[in-house]
From TrEMBL:
The keyword Cytoplasm applies. InterPro entries: PhoU, PhoU-like_sf, PhoU_dom. GO terms for biological process: intracellular phosphate ion homeostasis; negative regulation of phosphate metabolic process; phosphate ion transport. Coiled coil: none annotated. This is Phosphate-specific transport system accessory protein PhoU. It comes from the Bacteria. PANTHER family: PHOSPHATE-SPECIFIC TRANSPORT SYSTEM ACCESSORY PROTEIN PHOU (PTHR42930:SF3). It comes from Marinobacter oulmenensis. Homodimer. NCBIfam families: phoU_full (TIGR02135).
Length: 240
C-alpha cells in the first residue's frame, strides 16, 4: 500500500505543484465534512420534528454548491497549468468526479430536510422512523469511511464500502415493503408514509454516492477503473 501511495502522491520538482495537490485534497475533505454534517442534521431534523434545523440545512446547501464550483475550477487549473502525468492525473480527475458525488449527497440531504419541514408542520410522526435511523446510520458510516479511505489512500477500506452498498439496498427494500404494508392496513397514513419513503430513497442514494467515491479511491490507488464491475472483480483488482 505504501508504494502505491508514493505512486499517487510522489514528490515533484515543483514544491508549488505538491502544495496545489495537497490543497486540493484538503478542500475536498472539507467539503466532505460539510456534507457529512448535512446528512446527519437532516436525519436529526426529521426525527425530532425540528423545522428550524431543516431550514438551516437548506441554506447550507448553497455553501456546498459553492465549494463544488471552487474545487472544479481548482482542479481544472491544475490540469491546465501542470499537465500532470498519469499518477497525478488520476488524483485530479477522481477529485472532480467525487466532488460531484458529494454535491449530490448534499442534494439528498436537502430533500430530507424539505420532508422534515413538512412533517414538522403536520406535528405527527409517521411510521418508518426506526428504519430511517437504521439506514441513516449505515449510509453515514459508509460516507465517513469513504472519505477516510480517500484521506489514507486505502483501497482495501474502499472495497469494504462497495460491499456494504448491497446491504443498504436490501435494507431499503425491506423498509419500503414494511411501509407499504402499513399503508395498506390504514389508508389515512398514506401521505405521511410516502414522505418517509422519499426519505428512505434519499438515504439509499447517499449510500450509492458513497460507493461511487470508494470506486474512485480504488482507481486512484490501483490505477484501474472498477465502475460498472462486480464486487468480485473489484476485489481482484485490490488484492491481486
Amino acid at each position: 500500500m505504501d508504494d502505491k501511495k508514493d505512486e499517487v502522491y510522489g514528490d515533484h520538482i515543483s514544491h508549488k505543484f505538491n502544495d496545489e495537490l495537497m490543497e486540493l485534497k484538503a478542500e475536498f475533505l472539507t467539503m466532505g465534512g460539510m456534507v457529512e454534517s448535512q446528512v446527519e442534521n437532516a436525519i436529526q431534523a426529521l426525527v425530532d420534528g425540528d423545522g428550524h434545523l431543516a431550514e438551516q440545512i437548506r441554506l447550507n446547501d448553497k455553501k456546498v454548491d459553492r465549494l463544488e464550483v471552487s474545487l472544479d475550477e481548482e482542479a481544472t487549473l491544475i490540469i491546465a497549468r501542470r499537465q500532470p502525468t498519469a499518477r497525478d492525473l488520476r488524483l485530479v480527475i477522481s477529485v472532480i468526479k467525487m466532488v460531484a458525488d458529494l454535491e449530490r449527497i448534499g442534494d439528498e440531504a436537502k430533500k430530507i430536510a424539505k420532508v422534515a419541514m413538512t412533517l414538522a408542520e403536520e406535528g405527527h410522526a409517521p411510521r418508518g422512523y426506526v428504519e430511517v435511523r437504521h439506514i441513516g446510520v449505515h449510509v453515514q458510516t459508509m460516507l465517513h469511511d469513504a472519505l477516510d479511505a480517500f484521506a489514507r489512500l486505502d483501497s482495501t477500506q474502499a472495497l469494504r464500502i462497495m460491499k456494504e452498498d448491497k446491504r443498504v439496498d436490501e435494507e431499503y427494500q425491506a423498509a419500503a415493503r414494511a411501509l407499504l404494508t402499513f399503508m395498506m392496513e390504514d389508508t389515512r397514513n398514506i401521505s405521511r408514509c410516502m414522505s418517509v419513503m422519499w426519505v428512505l430513497r434519499a438515504l439509499e442514494r447517499v449510500g450509492d454516492h458513497a460507493c461511487n467515491i470508494a470506486e474512485n479511491v480504488i482507481f486512484m490507488v490501483e490505477g484501474e477503473d472498477v465502475r460498472h464491475t462486480s464486487v468480485e472483480e473489484a476485489e481482484r483488482v485490490v488484492t491481486g
